[in-house]
Amino acid sequence: MPFSADSAETLALKALSWLIGNDELLPVFLGSTGASEADVKTQMSNPEFLGSVLDFLMMDDAWIVAFCDANTIPYDHPMQARAVLAGPADMHWT
Predict the structure, then answer these.
(1) Is the per-residue pLDDT at 3 higher than 90?
(2) What share of the chain is helix, strand, coil (3-state, %, to 5)?
(3) 94 in a structural domain
(4) Mean pLDDT score, 81-93
(5) Tens digit of each residue's pLDDT (9 = 90 or more) over 30-75
(6) Which domain holds residue 56?
(7) C-alpha angle 76-45-65 in degrees, rounded to nearest 5
(8) Does any domain span residue 74?
């Protein structure tokens, strides 16, 4: 089933919520993206920011597995949601 923009954002918000609740991983995300805790609050509805959350989680298989297992989500859904959030501008054909 293809992801709609709404379902992609919902999944990304679940990922953000999971990340916020992870005391060990949240500082790593903030440090690697340069985002502040205030940015997290103000950018929650920004598809680009939500995409960065999924990009971050996809950097490590263990993070994706932990997130998906905690939320009973198939492992390939974060990547599918990320593709929808990116839109056609992020598509590469090479």
Answers:
(1) no
(2) 70, 0, 30
(3) no
(4) 71
(5) 999 899 999 999 999 999 999 999 999 999 999 999 999 999 999 9
(6) 5-86
(7) 25
(8) yes
Q: Is residue 60 part of a domain?
A: yes
Neighbours of 40 (CB within 10 A): 18
Number of structural domains, the chain? 1
Report, as an integer, the average pLDDT of 4-29: 95
Using alpha carbons, list the distances in angstroms from residue 52 to 1, 9, 94. Answer: 23, 12, 22
As a whole number of angstroms, the distance between CA 79 and CA 51 comes to: 10
CA geometry: angle at 21 spanning 46 and 43, to 5°? 15
Question: For 17-41, what is the mean pLDDT?
Answer: 93
* 53, 29 contact by CB (below 8 A): yes
Assigned domain for 15 exists: yes
b/e code 52-73 from CB counts within 10 Å (16+ = b): bbbebbeeeeebbeebbeeeeb
